[in-house]
Design brief:
Layout (H helix, E strand, L loop, with lengths): L7 E4 L10 H8 L9 H16 L6 H15 L6 H10 L10 H8 L4 E5 L3 H8 L8 E4 H4 L6 H11 L6 E5 L2 H10 L5 E4 L13 E3 L5 H4 L3
Parallel strand pairs: 1-2, 1-4, 2-3, 4-5, 5-6
Helix pairs in contact: 2-3, 3-4
């Protein structure tokens, strides 16, 4: 991708900027009920149920996570307590950024307005954003949009509230399924895939791939 000067650089937050630790939490909690050999697929199904939960009409993120872990445990025929179920949502505001995030983020923030759209609740997100160490022009949540990514309604909300067109933004995410696929469907041509190992690269969707956020400043000519 040639150097592009966007009106806004838009980001996914959890997983891309903030180190997403939902699987780490599950690994610790259920180590006594799920074998080491089975744990990777248990975590994969937990992730799949979280995706399944956000494809329906909006519900609070607390319910998304709780429903997903209950469904996963039911599928595996293991018991879980309400305290364990609640611990996932309670942990989210404590998560900090990936080590590679603060320096390049601060660098691009000097030249471009930064925006987040996150599959989060309003009572969570700013705790995580404050840990990123850079100013953000806007922070949008699924709660505000009443829709979660990958639903196109979420991207419509972001673009409408920025009063811009798809070609005006550079969208950055470590997720194809939640972000870059629907962004492509929305006509967002300028995209960056941060390949953190969550999902395989799928070049068909037309993005620049970087291994961590240190590659972002170069993409926008900094």
């Amino acid at each position: 991708m040639s150097t592009f000067k966007p009106k806004f650089i838009t980001f996914d937050c959890y997983g891309t900027l903030t180190r997403f630790q939902m699987s780490d939490t599950a690994r610790v909690i259920y180590a006594d009920r799920v074998s080491e050999a089975d744990m990777p697929f248990f975590l994969r199904q937990f992730a799949a149920y979280r995706l399944d939960e956000v494809l329906d009409q909006w519900k609070p993120y607390k319910d998304v996570v709780a429903n997903a872990i209950r469904r996963t445990c039911a599928r595996w025929n293991i018991k879980t307590t309400e305290e364990e179920v609640g611990s996932f949502y309670q942990a989210v505001p404590t998560w900090g950024p990936h080590a590679d995030v603060p320096a390049p983020l601060a660098k691009v923030a000097k030249e471009f307005p930064l925006v987040i759209f996150s599959n989060a609740s309003d009572d969570q997100i700013m705790h995580n954003v404050e840990k990123l160490g850079a100013p953000f022009h806007k922070v949008f949540t699924a709660q505000q949009a009443q829709a979660y990514k990958p639903r196109l309604r979420a991207f419509e909300y972001m673009l409408d509230n920025l009063n811009c067109n798809p070609e005006d933004v550079l969208h950055v995410s470590s997720s194809l399924r939640y972000d870059l696929m629907p962004a492509s469907d929305m006509g967002i041509k300028n995209k960056v895939f941060v390949a953190r190992g969550h999902e395989p690269s799928t070049p068909h969707y037309g993005y620049t791939e970087i291994t961590d956020l240190s590659g972002l400043p170069g993409i926008v000519g900094l």
